[in-house]
Amino acid sequence: MTLPLNDALARCERHADVLRAALADLPQAFDAEVVTSANAMLVRTTDQFVLRFIKLQDTLGEHVLRPFAAEVLGEPVVDLPLIDVLNRLDRFGYLTPAAWLRWRALRNSPTHEYPEQPQIRAAVLSEALHAAARMLERLQRLRERTSRAPD
User: What is the domain range of residue 86?
Assistant: First the structure.
């Protein structure tokens, strides 16, 4: 069941707030030394980052993108496949299908440990850092546009 758009955006903001806090406490990029660190605070913060990255993306995909396109942009997307919703959002400059599909592909990767290959985990987490920043920017644009929408 889809949440009302404003409730979904509020849920996204909760995830985004925790995600921003985690980002502030993480290095700007991961390397093998960082991902193999025994520092408990770094491990907890990385775990929080990964969890909120996934939750924010899930909430955007399940509860925000389609209602935003329908209610705010006035697009007839209720019964369309997600790729068509993404194409409409792209046409209005909110989100490209390529970006969303890359985020989806990246979604589960940070949860893998790669104990024998810390450089792979470092690369995945570094890419997730970059993707999280872009996702937060997209969320901000969606919220700004929603607040301008006539009631």
Answer: 5-146
